[in-house]
From TrEMBL:
This is Alpha/beta hydrolase. GO terms for molecular function: hydrolase activity. GO terms for cellular component: membrane. Keywords: Hydrolase. Residues 52-312 form the AB hydrolase-1 domain. It comes from Rhodopseudomonas palustris (strain ATCC BAA-98 / CGA009). Pfam families: Abhydrolase_1.
Amino acid sequence: MLAVVLWPIASAKAEAEIVNDDFKIKSSAPGIELFVRNKRPAGTDVSRGDRTVLYVHGATLASELVFDLPVGGASWADDLARAGWDVWLVDVRGYGRSTWPEALRAPAESNPPVATTAEAVADFTSAADFIRAKRKIDSLQVIGWSWGGVISGAYAAANPDKVSSLVLVAPLWAFDKPVTAGPPKKAWQEWTLADSRARIQKGVPAEQAKLILPDSTVALWEKAMRDSQPEAAGRTPELFRSPTGVAADVSWQAQQPYDAAAIKARTLIIRGEWDDLTPRSLQLALFGQLKNAKIRELIEIPAASHFIIVEKARDRLFDEVRNFLSRH
C-alpha cells in the first residue's frame, strides 16, 4: 500500500449535520500532493465499504467545481452525505487544489502534455489507497464523470476486488472516428467560461439551454471557477487553464482505453439524453464490454446534457445513483 503523509487543511465542522474535512496527501510522484475532500454525516459509522464513495472529475473541471457545487444550497456530495454515505472527492495533478506541475506555469510549448490518463489513474489509486487505509475497509464505491469515467473504470479493471460498485456518468470511451487532427504538443490549454459551457452542453436544443441550466446556476459555477483560478481574471480575455494530458491519449480514437471485461464490480452507466460530447454510441460500446460485471445497467435521463450533475435533471441523477449504490 502506498504510504501517505497528510494533514488537515480545514478542520472538521458540522454544517447541516455534515462533517467536512480537507486533506493534502502524497501521490506516487515526487513533489506531487493531491487534494482530497471528505463529507460525511455527523455521528455515523464510517468504516463501511458499502457506504464509502470516491468521485473523480473530468478533463477540465476539478471535482469541487461540479461534484461539490452547492446548487440550490446543496451539492451532489452533500446529497450523498445526507443519505448516509462517507463521501470523498479527489483532484488529480494539475487540477483544482492538487499540485500543479511546473509545466503548467511555464510557457505551454516548453513541455509535453501534463496529467495523462496513466498519471491520473496513479493519482486516483493513491487517493483510494489512502481512504481504504484510513477507514480500514477492503473496498469502496466509485463515481467517475466524463474522463473520470476512464480513470475510475481503469482503476476498477486493475483492482477488481477493491471496487464494489462503479458509477460512470457520461463516460468517455473509444471513438468511432478521429476527433482531433493529432495529439497536442503543449502542456496546457486555455479556455473561457463560455467555451467550457458550450462544450459540456453540446447537443442541447437552443431553446432548452436556460431551462435546464438557469442563470443562477451558471453564476454560481462561474464564481466557483474564478475562485479556483483567480489569476484568470488578470488575462484579457479571461482565460482558464487545464492540462492537455487527456487530449494526448489519442489511442482512444482507435482502441479501448482499458479492458472493461476485467471489471467485476456492479456497474451503472448513466447519461443525459442531449449529451453530444460523449455520444450514446460510446456508452453502448462500453456497456457491451462489461461482460463480467456482477450487474450492469445503462440509464439515459431525458432533458439533460453532459453537464447533468448541475442541471435541472440532477435530482433524477441523484436518485438513480443512490438507489444503485444502495443495492449492494
